Amino acid sequence: MTTTTKPTRRTPQTADAPAGRDPGARPPVRRRPRADRVYLWFLLPTLVLFTLSITMPAAMGIFYSFTDSVGFGEFDFVGLNNYLVMFSDPAILSSYGFTIGVALCTVILVNVIALTLAIGLTAKIRAKTTLRTIFVMPMVVSGIIIAFVFQFIFANTVPAAAQALQLGVLEESILADPDLAWISIVLVTAWQAVPQAMLIYIAGLMTVPRDVYEASAIDGASAWKQLRSITLPLISGFVLINVIIGFKDFLGTYEIIVGLTDGGPGTSTRSVAMTIFSGFDNGDYAYQMANSTIFFLITLTIALIQLRLTRGNARI
Amino acid sequence: MSYAPPTPSRRAFLGGLAGVALAAGLSGCGTGRGAQEVSFHQSKPEAIPYFGDLVRDFNQQASGVRAVHDTSSGLSAGFARGNPPDLGCLNYNYEIVRFQERGAFSDLADLAEEARIAPSIQDLIDQYPTYPGRTSVIPYSMMAAAVLYNEEIFAEHDLSIPTTYSEFLEVCSTLEDAGVTPIYSTYADPWTVAQGLVDYSVGGSVDVAAFFEQLRAQGSDAGPDAPVSFSRTLREPLEQMLEIAAFSQPGAASRGYGDGNVAFARGEAAMYLQGPWALGEIATLNPDAQIGIFPLPMTEDPEDLKVRVNLDLALWVPEASNAQEPARDLLRYLITPEIADAYNQDNLAFGVREDAPAVEDPRLQDLQTFVDRAAFYQGVSQAIPRTIPFENYAQGMVTGQSLEATLRTLDEDWARLARR
Q1: Residue A217 domain flag
Q2: I need a labelling partner for B154 at 20 to 30 A (CA). Which of A197, B215, B230, B350 fits?
Q3: Is residue B80 less than 8 Å (CB to CB) from chain A?
Q4: Domain range holding A48?
Q5: Which of the following CATH numbers is that of domain B145-308+384-419: 1.10.10.60, 3.30.70.660, 3.40.50.1220, 3.40.190.10?
Q6: Which of B72, B75, B76, B386 to mutate to test the interface with A (most CBs of A within 10 A)?
Q7: Has residue A181 been placed in a domain?
Q8: What mean pLDDT comes out for the span B14-32?
Q9: The domains spanning B36-142+310-366 and B145-308+384-419 adopt the same CATH topology
Q10: Is ipTM beyond 0.85?
């Protein structure tokens, strides 16, 4: 990895180097700074928009996390008080536990299903394109609609079917069971997230050269052996990307939970995002800003890990 | 609340004259260029068409003021931006209370006098934290809620309305033995558990207002082991609540408010712990349904019977509004007896004036006597700041979580909030 990262680091250095450092041998001395300025102009709109709509609100949120503001009117500075209270607040701690647990389960489920589908859909089968289109469909439906449809399925269809088949366990809706409701959230989130991961895996599988399979087939490798020793190692970068991006996305789960359980039964399925969002309407503005600051730091860490692990990985 | 206006000094008089002259000049400008706009925030879904018509009538009558009906649901954002609505007409709940207690509303003492609010109803406002020395909110409409029951089913099984807790349990057992579901519950919607089962059970035996006054007086000393706590005071009525909840239909945990209205309208259960707001939908689903209302008895003394009320609509003018005068004009229009009474009759609500006429709707007649005697309470679920997910806790209690543990959590949440 070190050998691949070095050149990428060096390139921007030479590009940014002041014109004076260049040996006079190269004639177009003036061109370079001009080209740089053009790129700056390209950057400007995005930079302004990003600063106004993301950086500044985020900075203001962090600022308010040190106050007792309720979102309007006067406020006082309370130092780290919000943070201190937060770390002993069982409601917040349990929402972190729940969110991380659900994100982990969902990531595993999504990647297993997506990889299986991707392998199937890159094999020599009929109607490949049609099947791919069908499997991608969940991606285009809005999350809240998916959640409401599944809410109906879990609350009515599944128990009715279970009753008809006398399946005992499933006769009571799992949405109504504080110990099982999280499963419905994992299932529905996965249902929606599989297509994206699947597309990335399909792209990954297409990068694996045919000849390695042919060679291994000649050596007598079974399909399982090929999967384990050739496919998986060669698409490991894609697995990494799917796992990290997926985990980060699932941490922010919101609308699926709102539509399915709305945090219930009891408080068994309240995610961090829901807790943060409720603060604005509940007069808990500053407190939940502290919560979102911590949440931001967690996602930032994951993003940095992702950046570090994938940087310079030539296979991606 | 009333005060004698001081005799104006000559200087004040001259100042007043100048003010009048200036106002006349400005209003001249106003009529010339178009009316001054008043944003009127009213988002109770059932009442939007009604107030839409009222606003249109007001705009035809009033000169120099034009009201704009704002029916969006968010309120916090407007206050956060410093751009709140000019006149609010919303449910008086903890969302409003937190604006009120921080002095975000202007003083309406003079208009409150014109509104002639019944003292027992004014008390409801003062049961929550207010801003000292100020009339921040004027009640507009009150809703009373109790147990809805199917009169046909009761008659069929020869049941009379229970007035004590043991009679109530007897009614439930009789119905159950006869193969009729006594109560239809909708645990999937947490608010229905909180406003129905929990509020009726607690309000029927505990003095809710006094309980919260003591609780607040304890300040940050609150907690499960404090002299006044949820664990101590609410445990008994909530144990009774669980006894009552056990008479619900099977599968209540996955049924929501909509399911409940449909099932109750179809006569699938004898009782339904909902408010009059459900009556409209029930009547649409089954125009022949004969529905009556009675307060849930929680003690052995019929004298203790009380109904749950809430200020369904209350009016306020934010301090930050830059159209306070026209907003007050609109407010004055809304509280004129003809307008206010017509609204309340039309929406199955009770008037808040001292001389408000009795309800006409036959289904609400039984509640009128309780309202007249002020035998009512505001629900315990409404007196808890929303940052504590009380509705979810209520849902947890009826879906099998430990009552003791839930009350302990509630006490700890309350104490944590008091310390913040």
Answers
A1: yes
A2: B350
A3: yes
A4: 2-64
A5: 3.40.190.10
A6: B76
A7: yes
A8: 43
A9: yes
A10: no
Mean pLDDT of A94-102: 94
Band (pLDDT 50/70/90 cuts) for residue A32 is: low
Same-domain status, A134 and A186:
yes
In the numeric block, the tokens 């036959």 are attached to B362
- Establish if B284 touches chain A: CB-CB under 8 angstroms: no
> Domain limits of chain B?
36-142+310-366, 145-308+384-419
Lowest mean pLDDT among A162-171, B81-90, B279-288: A162-171
Asked if A60 and A111 sit in the same domain, the reply is: no
Nearest C-alpha of chain A: how many angstroms from B396?
4
Nearest by CB to B392, which of A68, A72, A264? A264
**pLDDT given for residue B242 in this prediction:** 97
Q: Cβ of A173 and B104 within 8 Å?
A: no
Could you say which of B385, B399, B409 has the minimum Cβ distance to residue A283?
Answer: B385
Answer yes or no: is A201 within a domain: yes
Q: Please list every residue in chain B whose beta carbon sits closer than 8 Å to the beta carbon of residue A147.
A: none
Summarize pLDDT for A142-153 with one digit per residue, the tens. Answer: 999 999 999 999
Q: Which range among A14-28, A88-102, B23-37, B363-377 shows the weakest confidence by mean pLDDT? A: A14-28
Residue B36 pLDDT grade (very low, low, confident, very high; cuts 50, 70, 90): confident
Give the confidence band of A172 by pLDDT, cuts at 50, 70, 90. Answer: confident
Are B386 and A266 inside 8 Å of each other by CB?
A: no
Q: Are residues A240 and A94 in the same domain?
A: yes
> Is residue B78 very low, low, confident or very high in pLDDT (cuts 50, 70, 90)?
confident
Residue A312 has what pLDDT? 57
Q: Does B36-142+310-366 carry CATH code 3.40.190.10?
A: yes
By Cβ distance, the residue of A81, A267, A283 closest to B389 is A267
**Nearest Cα to B40, choosing from B58, B67, B75?**
B67
Q: How many angstroms away from the CA of B103 is the closest CA of chain A?
A: 9
